[in-house]
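Worked Example 4.2. Consider the chain below.
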Amino acid sequence: MNWDAIGAIAESLGAFGVIASVLYLAYEVRSNTKTMRAEAGTRAQMEWSKFNFAWSEHKDRDAMARVLDPKQTLSGFTESERIALTFTLRSFAQQVEAQFFQFEAGVLNEEVWEAHITAFAALIRFPAAAEWWQGEITLPIYTKSFRERVAQASTVDIPASVVIGLNPNERT
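Applying the procedure from the previous section yields the following structure tokens:
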């Protein structure tokens, strides 16, 4: 066997090695992507869980629940209640915007994203929350792309009683 044949065999083995490495790398990237998406979905749900728990424990939770009254406007809240409501809703909006960034990056599952943006859009359809949001979007807090996405979100009517866990026949 001559050196040319040995060289050709070595090149062939090297080419197979490169192909095997690329296939392995593709497998690892795909596996990592699945893991990242699962982690993003878990983080999104955990943030919502923290928000819901914080709302349930909030000293002004009864006043804040009034934001879900279809007849309530912001003028029906005291200054202190409006401040608490603003920071609570802002926290919620910023969580949704963080999820928007994850979705846009392809990390957050579309089904999870659509459920969350739809829920946020439903919340800001209540008159007091809508009034708050209209003031909020005039501030340099949210990206233009997020504000536009919220405006385009699917809208559903969710009864306030369902949102806060009451029997739909009970009044809030």
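The chain has seven helices and no strands. The chain has one domain: 3-163. Compare this with Example 4.1 before moving on.
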